[in-house]
Amino acid sequence: MITKLISKIRKTNAPIVVGLDPMMKYVPEHIKKAAFAEYGETLEGAAEAIWQFNKGIVDAVCDLIPAVKPQSAMYEQFGVPGMAAFKKTIDYCHEKDLVVIGDVKRGDIGSTSEAYAVGHLGKVQVGSSSYSGFDEDFVTVNPYLGSDGVNPFIKVCREEKKGIFVLVKTSNPSSGELQDRLVRDEKHSVDRPVYEIVGEQVAAWGNDCMPEEGEYSYIGAVVGATYPEQGRVLRRLMPNAFILVPGYGAQGGRGADLAHFFHKDGLGAIVNSSRGIIAAYQQEMYSHYGEKAYADASRAAVLAMREDIMSALHQVH
Amino acid sequence: MITKLISKIRKTNAPIVVGLDPMMKYVPEHIKKAAFAEYGETLEGAAEAIWQFNKGIVDAVCDLIPAVKPQSAMYEQFGVPGMAAFKKTIDYCHEKDLVVIGDVKRGDIGSTSEAYAVGHLGKVQVGSSSYSGFDEDFVTVNPYLGSDGVNPFIKVCREEKKGIFVLVKTSNPSSGELQDRLVRDEKHSVDRPVYEIVGEQVAAWGNDCMPEEGEYSYIGAVVGATYPEQGRVLRRLMPNAFILVPGYGAQGGRGADLAHFFHKDGLGAIVNSSRGIIAAYQQEMYSHYGEKAYADASRAAVLAMREDIMSALHQVH
Asked: Which own/partner pairs from A150-153 qualify as long-range (CB within 8 Å, at least 24 positions apart)?
């Protein structure tokens, strides 16, 4: 799947992933009205509204981008009907040949991580049949529990030719509280931040997870656009890891900050934008599209983001 | 909710939580057969089987225990129907007046953690109505993203009078890879493990989260039974935090290891057992119950666990 992701990035010339993180306040009135008319102001109504909202955006941008990243939390907030909308969104994106990164940030002890891996990337056995639970192509994984929590994902990835992105340095303001703490590295007699230690683990896990062709393992890393200096260090520490970069746009990351997350050939990273794309019509710059044409505004925002990133890459490399 | 948990622990004289982590291999044949007859060998069939399995256990042990802890992963592996069984289990446990700890180990950046908190502990607004998504009483939270990821949970807990357990030192063998790393503490000029740093954060978050009555905040911690020495240190570092202790039984923790997780009054911790209770009938000691009476075997295992823990507490304190 990492090979497919890279080939689609090359084809679209857009190292961009659109975060499908629907909140009710982003959904245009006409969509909510139709959904509530059919299902009432219920969880089912909300789930229908976010699914229709997603579908409009996917239809408008699917030829421009290689991948989408639905954020599980935004669906879980609507309970079981929300999870059904999550699954429907994943299936629809597959129909449109998009790579789907499930932003689930799961991670647990061995047997439990295995159940998460099976549910999101693999197939579960039921009697003599087997089924995909959610069927993403990649998921994000939290490293706090160590190798036990990550290895079951790697095992399923190997079987299913899928991949993961491990949280290394997250984009939020307080990520440093734990991730920037200096840890004693006895071997090298220096103090090094936690994110470097985790980055080295990602590199080590990836060594055994190279696809038959290509330079990137299917064990990637999450490093926030809001921390470009750390991105530069981590790019060097994990030369074969693809980096998923959140935090562009609404969270403050700019194109110029991103160059160091990429290799010189312009590959090695994929940049996520959620609100900046899916709620573009609510920004002044795109407000002339109006609510009804919200998906056209999203398309314009994807084109602008591609321009911003590609020009930053050309300037530096 | 922490007040209710403590009052139920006092009433049952059992600081025990039963982990409802159903795997198909634990479910007796007669339950699978009935579920598959109705729904086929499908995800719906599997979800029906684990729900009926849970219901049998809850009916058999609900008068003995204060709380249950369904593990989200074991339901997510069966996709959307699995999540419906998760919700059904939560609702049924509430009917039986059990405290429900959702073992979801979520954690993300601010707005996303807020959606998780709303979905699992709070209420989501849909038009002019509001709904509970999953409606647990407590959830487990991963601290890797720092305060940004935890504060939205605290906010919802305050509004809903619910609580969280933050992962501090997990029970699995590789938990030390990150959690035991020594971090430079400039203020005290010493090196201290990551789990102590996180434990201090839990204590600090808890200071502002005390219920109107009682000595325990509604910000608890997860510390594995498999690490009793660390449990002793953390008990001292977080005097007002309730500790959720996984790893008893199948993972190797014994009653004698648990004493240090408790305060001298016998409160302050609640010990989880999953496989050891729900699949008790598959152990030699309880095999005479047979598959059909699997729930009676679970009841016997709860009684034995209560005895083991209470006698360990009496010996030490």
From this structure: A150/A107, A150/A113, A150/A205, A151/A110, A151/A113, A152/A110, A152/A111, A152/A113, A152/A114, A152/A116, A152/A117, A153/A113, A153/A116, A153/A117, A153/A121
Catalytically active residues of B, by annotation: 105
**Alpha-carbon distance B98 to B18, whole Å?**
11
Cα separation, A73 vs B155, in Å, equals: 16
Among residues B244, B165, B167, which one has the least CA distance to residue B209? B165
d(CA A109, CA A89): 29
- pLDDT tens digits, one per residue of A240-258: 999 999 988 766 767 788 9
Q: B124 CA to chain A: closest CA distance, Å? A: 7
CA B64 to CA B303: how far, in whole Å? 8
H-type helices in A141-193, by residue range?
A: 147-160, 176-179
Non-local CB neighbours of B115 within 8 Å, separated by 6+ positions: A23, A71, A73, A74, A76, A77
Low-confidence ranges of chain B (pLDDT < 70): 250-251, 253, 316-317
User: Rounded mean pLDDT of chain A?
Assistant: 95
Task: Choose among A24, A116, A184: nearest Cβ to B182.
Answer: A184
pTM: 0.97
Please count the residues of chain B.
317
ipTM score of the complex? 0.96
Q: Is B73 in contact with A106 (Cβ distance < 8 A)?
A: yes
* Phi, psi (deg, nearest 5) at residue B84: -65, -35
- Whether the pLDDT of residue A276 is over 70: the answer is yes
**Tens-place pLDDT, residues A4-61:** 999 999 999 999 999 999 999 999 999 999 999 999 999 999 999 999 999 999 999 9
The confidence score (pLDDT) of residue B255 equals: 78
Distance from CA of A281 to the nearest CA of B (A): 20
Cα separation, B14 vs B96, whole angstroms: 17
Measure Cα distances from B226 to A43, B261, B311 in Å: 41, 11, 19
C-beta atoms of B116 and A73 within 8 A: yes
Cα dist from B58 to B29, B63, B66, B97, B278, whole Å: 19, 9, 11, 11, 10
For residue A198, give the nearest of B143, B174, B178 by CB distance.
Answer: B178
Q: What pLDDT shows up at residue A316?
A: 61
Answer left, alpha or beta for residue A135, where phi above 0 means left and psi between -120 and 50 means alpha. Answer: left
pLDDT of residue B42: 98
